[in-house]
UniProtKB/TrEMBL annotation:
<dbReference type="InterPro" id="IPR000644">
    <property type="entry name" value="CBS_dom"/>
</dbReference>
<feature type="domain" description="CBS">
    <location>
        <begin position="73"/>
        <end position="130"/>
    </location>
</feature>
<dbReference type="Pfam" id="PF00571">
    <property type="entry name" value="CBS"/>
</dbReference>
<dbReference type="InterPro" id="IPR046342">
    <property type="entry name" value="CBS_dom_sf"/>
</dbReference>
<keyword id="KW-0129">CBS domain</keyword>
<dbReference type="InterPro" id="IPR051257">
    <property type="entry name" value="Diverse_CBS-Domain"/>
</dbReference>
<feature type="domain" description="CBS">
    <location>
        <begin position="8"/>
        <end position="67"/>
    </location>
</feature>
<protein>
    <submittedName>
        <fullName>CBS domain-containing protein</fullName>
    </submittedName>
</protein>
Length: 138
């Protein structure tokens, strides 16, 4: 059984919900990532923001990223997977919620992220095709 921990990109970092989006953008640039998990005051996952969110939901709407909190872009229930989850469970979670990045949690702490690139390295061609059709095809 291949687990989420085995396919994830380790070393993901939180950004606190009260931080401003310009800080999130700088952290994304420094880490060379396109998404950040957002934590509440107890270091619990409360959302994910992406570089696209910052552009489309903030800048394109005339808002100032230096005056807009990360919490303002967090929508819906955040999805995550346990570090010991089987890769089929990871795939199901991402497909059923049509998401492209999934935080990996171990002992209530963020330990990594799974992205499409991580999936592509560990799935069969048929699984990748199904994922792409499910997440992008509808």
């Amino acid at each position: 059984m291949t687990t989420a921990k085995e396919i994830m990109h380790p070393g993901a970092q939180w950004i606190k919900r009260e931080e401003m989006l310009d800080q999130a953008a700088r952290l994304m640039a420094r880490l060379d990532v396109g998404a950040l998990p957002v934590s509440d005051e107890n270091e619990r996952l409360c959302g994910i923001i992406t570089d696209r969110d910052i552009v489309v939901k903030c800048i394109a709407k005339g808002r100032n990223p230096a005056e807009t909190k990360c919490a303002d872009l967090c929508e819906g229930t955040p999805r995550w997977v346990d570090a010991n989850a089987d890769v089929s469970d990871v795939l199901h979670e991402m497909e059923s919620h049509r998401i492209k990045r999934l935080p990996v949690i171990e002992n209530k702490r963020l330990i990594g992220m799974i992205s499409e690139a991580d999936l592509a390295q560990h799935l069969t061609d048929d699984q990748i095709a199904e994922f792409a059709e499910t997440v992008y095809g509808r």
